[in-house]
UniProtKB/TrEMBL annotation:
<keyword id="KW-0472">Membrane</keyword>
<keyword id="KW-1133">Transmembrane helix</keyword>
<keyword id="KW-1003">Cell membrane</keyword>
<feature type="transmembrane region" description="Helical">
    <location>
        <begin position="259"/>
        <end position="286"/>
    </location>
</feature>
<protein>
    <recommendedName>
        <fullName>Anoctamin</fullName>
    </recommendedName>
</protein>
<keyword id="KW-0812">Transmembrane</keyword>
<comment type="similarity">
    <text>Belongs to the anoctamin family.</text>
</comment>
<feature type="transmembrane region" description="Helical">
    <location>
        <begin position="337"/>
        <end position="357"/>
    </location>
</feature>
<feature type="domain" description="Anoctamin transmembrane">
    <location>
        <begin position="248"/>
        <end position="826"/>
    </location>
</feature>
<dbReference type="GO" id="GO:0005886">
    <property type="term" value="C:plasma membrane"/>
</dbReference>
<feature type="transmembrane region" description="Helical">
    <location>
        <begin position="735"/>
        <end position="752"/>
    </location>
</feature>
<dbReference type="Pfam" id="PF04547">
    <property type="entry name" value="Anoctamin"/>
</dbReference>
<dbReference type="GO" id="GO:0005254">
    <property type="term" value="F:chloride channel activity"/>
</dbReference>
<dbReference type="GO" id="GO:0046983">
    <property type="term" value="F:protein dimerization activity"/>
</dbReference>
<feature type="transmembrane region" description="Helical">
    <location>
        <begin position="791"/>
        <end position="812"/>
    </location>
</feature>
<feature type="transmembrane region" description="Helical">
    <location>
        <begin position="470"/>
        <end position="491"/>
    </location>
</feature>
<dbReference type="InterPro" id="IPR032394">
    <property type="entry name" value="Anoct_dimer"/>
</dbReference>
């Protein structure tokens, strides 16, 4: 026998039920009829009396609003110390709060023909899922629920009329607003499940999964959507299948559904960028033999006879240009004409992606009944932390209730402190980047010193250059990646701490503030090293005899690889981007699995009858309110890699595509198997991330134009070919000799010159006059022509791409025409059906009152609408 207590105002009803007749793996109360919509858990501790009083008042208030509770004693739990409170929302409660929340429900079957079938539709058959998985619910016209007009809606079964996600959202709405403490004056009312979780009164609150993920529920009344999602969506071998978005929305709610819709759409659009990027990369390989400047570098006649100036002071020697042969060939695979085309293509691609996503989002808004949804209306609830920390109170003009508020002076002070902290941590990132730069300079000099033979005075053919430069670049990139990951962990905590310190008023405001801070931190953290290599490295080095130095005269500013800085930017991008994606997927999959394995290690030996459905879910990880936040952040950072620096690495979209195919299934797997079922929430868009993506799309056009102009050697080559080719032919012969300036080594310190006694001149990358010229070591006219060509290229490319972007955005409407038509028809039908419903209701009332002849009154007043005559007659 087991006792279930149901509190009302003055009565305690004790119900005795035989627990052996009920499977603990069920999602119903012991009577097998009432569905468990939510579960609360708690453990008694030393502060038990105070917390017990809170629980007693809280649960009594829950019962007073109509919820039904059933408590599982700790003796029945797996660990022998956890109590579980199961909550069921009856029809009256669901109907009342569905009216309050304006939940849209069906009132008529959709009668608009579906014209989505395309010719040769059979080609997509291998990628499709069964119809009952893709469309688990019929298509209806919907309208906001009105409890007073319940017979207007298509209610076949009250127990299943509201979906499980809607039920748990309604229950959570009640839990968030139900009070657990009121002082004697009745002025201070403490309420909300979040505050009870924060102060330890309850240890967890969550809706139940409807079954185990690897098998269907034994209860015939349970739909086992979790099992269907795991079978058709969460397994990796389904990577080529479409996502069951409607089932995801039904089970997890619209907010999670919109994330996976965006991630899936983003992955689909990456396919086109990956194909074009791969073609551009293949073009670089196929034009390998047409690379004249690399042939000159590798040849003994040109590159073998050019002696280059030392790349560092004191420890570096002279070296021959042909030692950079391999680097030059590798650079050509990424630095070619295809790079310019791909940079322009990606500028247009990102616009198409964002515009088509708006259309896809508009279609989902209609299909998921989110057209009139206003997120702000759902976020009027104050955060518990705001209520706790704000002692002042004032009248809310919207709710007309007294509520806590933060004084303007305190708000300004907190905002100032928050901004100062953000600047401090950004400065820390920059300091780390400078530290990595210093490492590159010092280690390169050390490698060069080790590699060279100090006893010889001959020119080093293999030289100290290639191996030290490659080793320095790779190790610096790996160290930078490790620093990024360490700082990333610190920034997450700092950003949360700063946001908490600002005490945002609502959950929406809190999330938006955290989004801005975390993205700003991540942007500087992940991209600063790439910005350095792309736009600063090798740009401020000076020239032999007058080099620029860091930290006084200790370390000479870093020069680019003789093959150009583009290959180093590619190396940096590949290591950071690939490392982040691999580490992220391992962390997302492995950490929750290990934590769940450890948490449920005792329960694994228990038979099913002793390990209940609520205990199984209790042992899983909590998804949390910010679960999707980190998923969006990860994808937006990746979006930056493939747009901001894609001109340096055309294969970046391909790597992102492969990662996202895995990411979709990893996220689906951990959501269905490793996490408790999140509370369903509505969202009609991806929120603040949309504006961030728009900003990055604009910035990407600028960065790629600058990369092609200043980081690659594309513009200097074109200027040489069209304006400085001595033979007047359209080829690149003689380019290498033309692009290197001459320096008299007599000006080099003896510490270096002693290694090269028989060489009088050395070469370096720049366009400067040689010694003896009237403008000795100043820039030549060719330098200014190249600079003008670079600026002209940037201006032309930016304007062309921006014009095309704005034209494309103007040409593609944000809302598809058929969706607009469906929305208008639905609104028309709502008005028409509601009008007819009211008229019929009036007729019934009139007939019940004895006015049986009112149907003839319109004949007397032909100019008055029928419904007005009936109303007047009543």
């Amino acid at each position: 026998q087991h006792t279930v207590c149901v509190w009302s105002e003055n009565i305690i009803i004790r119900v005795f039920i035989d627990k052996q007749q009920h499977s603990k793996d069920s999602v119903f109360f012991r009577d097998g009829v009432r569905m468990i919509d939510f579960v609360l858990s708690y453990v008694e501790d030393k502060d038990g009396e105070r917390k017990q009083e809170r629980r007693r008042l809280y649960e009594a208030n829950l019962v007073n609003v109509g919820l039904e509770l059933e408590t599982e004693d700790k003796s029945e739990s797996d660990d022998g110390k956890t109590y579980f409170v199961k909550i069921h929302a009856p029809w009256e409660v669901l109907a009342t709060y569905a009216d309050v929340l304006k939940v849209k429900v069906p009132f008529k079957t959709n009668d608009i023909p579906d014209n989505s079938e395309m010719p040769m539709n059979w080609l997509s058959t291998p990628f499709r899922l069964p119809e009952h998985i893709m469309h688990p619910q019929p298509d209806y016209f919907t309208a906001p629920f009105d409890k007073s007009k319940s017979d207007f809606f298509l209610i076949d079964n009250k127990d299943t009329f509201f979906s499980p996600s809607t039920r748990n959202r309604i229950v959570y709405y009640i839990l968030s607003r139900c009070s657990y403490f009121r002082d004697e004056c009745g002025d201070k009312d403490k309420k909300g499940i979040k505050r009870l979780l924060n102060n330890g009164t309850y240890t967890a609150s969550f809706p139940l999964h409807d079954s185990r993920y690897w098998t269907r529920s034994k209860d015939a009344n349970c739909e086992s959507d979790r099992y269907s999602l795991h079978k058709h969506w969460a397994r990796f071998f389904c990577f080529f299948k479409e996502q069951p978005l409607n089932l995801i929305r039904k089970y997890y709610g619209e907010k999670i559904g919109i994330y996976f819709a965006w991630l899936g759409f983003y992955t689909e659009m990456l396919l086109f960028a990956a194909i074009v990027g791969t073609i551009c990369f293949i073009y670089g390989i196929l034009t390998y033999d047409e690379n004249e400047w690399s042939k000159e570098i590798c040849s003994e006649e040109v590159g073998g006879n050019i002696v280059m100036c030392p790349l560092c002071d004191k420890k570096c020697g002279f070296w021959k240009l042909n030692t950079t042969c391999n680097s030059s060939w590798q650079s050509h695979m990424f630095d070619n004409v295809g790079t310019v085309f791909f940079a322009i293509f990606m500028g247009i691609w990102v616009t198409l992606f964002l515009e088509f996503w708006k259309r896809r989002q508009a279609r989902l808004e209609y299909e998921w009944d989110l057209v009139d949804f206003e997120e702000e209306q759902q976020q009027l609830q104050l955060r518990p932390e705001y209520e706790t920390k704000c002692t002042g109170r004032k009248l809310n003009r919207i709710t007309q209730e007294m509520e806590p508020y933060l004084p303007i002076t305190s708000k300004c002070a907190r905002t100032f402190l928050s901004g100062a902290t953000v600047l401090l941590w950004i400065s820390l990132i920059i300091a780390c980047i400078i530290g990595v730069i210093a490492y590159r300079l010092a280690v390169y000099a050390a490698f060069a010193s080790i590699m060279k033979d100090s006893a010889t005075t001959h020119i080093q053919v293999v030289g100290p250059y290639i191996t030290p430069q490659l080793a320095t670049s790779v190790t610096a990139s790996c160290i930078n990646f490790v620093i990024i990951m360490i700082l990333n962990l610190m920034y997450e905590r700092v950003a949360v701490w700063i946001t908490d310190m600002e005490i945002p008023k609502t959950h929406l405001e809190y999330e938006n503030k955290l989004v801005v801070k975390m993205f700003l931190f991540q942007f500087v953290n992940y991209y600063s090293s790439c910005f350095y290599v792309a736009f600063f490295k090798g740009k401020f080095v000076g020239y032999p005899g007058k080099y620029a130095y860091m930290f006084g005269s200790t370390l000479r500013n870093e020069e680019c690889d003789p093959g150009g800085c583009l290959i180093e930017l590619t190396t940096q991008l590949v290591i950071v981007m690939t490392g982040k994606q691999v580490w992220g997927n391992i962390q997302e999959a492995l950490v929750p699995w290990l934590m769940n394995w450890w948490g449920s290690r005792k329960a694994r030996n228990h038979p099913e009858s002793l390990y209940s459905r609520w205990e199984q879910d209790h042992d899983l990880q909590s998804f949390g309110n910010l679960g999707l936040f980190y998923e969006y952040l990860e994808m937006v950072i990746q979006f930056g890699f493939i747009t901001l620096f894609v001109a340096s690495f055309p294969l970046a979209p391909l790597l992102a595509l492969i990662n996202n195919i895995i990411e979709v299934r990893v996220d689906a797997w951990k959501l269905t198997t490793q996490f408790r079922r999140p509370v369903a929430a509505k969202a009609h868009s991806i929120g603040a991330w949309q504006e961030i993506l728009n900003g990055m799309a604009v910035l990407s056009v600028v960065t790629n134009a600058f990369i092609v102009a200043f980081t690659s050697d594309m513009i200097p080559r074109l200027v040489y070919m069209y304006a400085y080719q001595p033979d007047g032919e359209m080829n690149m012969k003689g380019y290498i000799n033309n692009s290197l300036s001459v320096f008299n080594i007599s000006a080099i310190p003896l510490a270096i010159k002693r290694y090269m006694n028989m060489v009088l001149l050395c070469r370096y990358r720049d366009y400067r006059y040689a010694s003896g010229h009237e403008k000795e070591y100043s820039h030549t006219m060719q330098f200014w022509h190249i600079l003008a060509a670079k600026l002209a290229f940037i201006i032309i490319v930016e304007h062309v791409v921006f014009v095309v972007k704005f034209f494309v955005a103007w040409m593609i409407p944000d809302v598809p025409s058929d969706v607009r038509a469906r929305v208008k028809r639905e609104r028309y039908l709502v008005q028409e059906y509601l009008h007819n419903y009211e008229v019929e209701k009036l007729k019934i009332q009139l007939s019940q009152n004895g006015h049986t002849d009112c149907s003839c009154t319109p004949m007397i007043y032909p100019s008055i609408p029928k419904h007005e005559v009936l109303s007047e007659c009543l």
